[in-house]
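Contributing new records

If you add data, match the layout below exactly. Sequence lines come first and carry their own label; structure lines follow with theirs. Keep one chain per record. Anything else will be rejected by the validation script.
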Amino acid sequence: MAIDATHIRPIAVQPAQLPLNAADPARLPVMETFYSLQGEGFHQGKAAFFIRLAGCDVGCVWCDVKESWTTAGYPQKEVDSLVEEALQYPARMVIITGGEPTLYDLAPLCKGFREAGFQVHLETSGAHPIVGHFDWICLSPKKFKPAIPEVCRQAHELKVVIYHHSDFLWAEQYARLVSPQCHLFLQPEWSRKSRMVPLIIDYIQQHPQWSLSLQLHKYINIP
């Protein structure tokens, strides 16, 4: 089914309604699955099986996957079938992304993949509590819906997208909320990378606790 991303709006979700799959946590709305390399952050360059869940209530204006905001038109997939699909590939890392995957109870998904021998990674804006046992949590907060303190404390990696020079101060605010062991990354927003990369390089040279994250997958044209 074709999705017109220009007319998509984030799904409206109230905390009392979460998780959206409460009736059947073993089924999830899946926009796409694919086998590729992690293009960003701490695990950049590693092979992984990606599961992009549909549905988002954050609505970042520069989101590059706006078609993931809605669940309409996407299949509900069983955890077992997702595990079977991932087992066709040699890597034993699965990355759950979105959309905003924490809209859902992810405990059965984590359990299924961990029992199959996978490391389970999560990419989240941190707007909702995490339900599930993850080996790695990448927190990428958005100004449109703040990350909750609970998720900040759980994050293994903080990845802040830099769109404007004022975002450096905003990044430091989140750096104070994560654990001392959390890895800190600054990543240029793709459409403004030519302007932001020099600023980020200069900032990291002055603040070496941060590292640079680039969207490697876009540079080498892979999913």
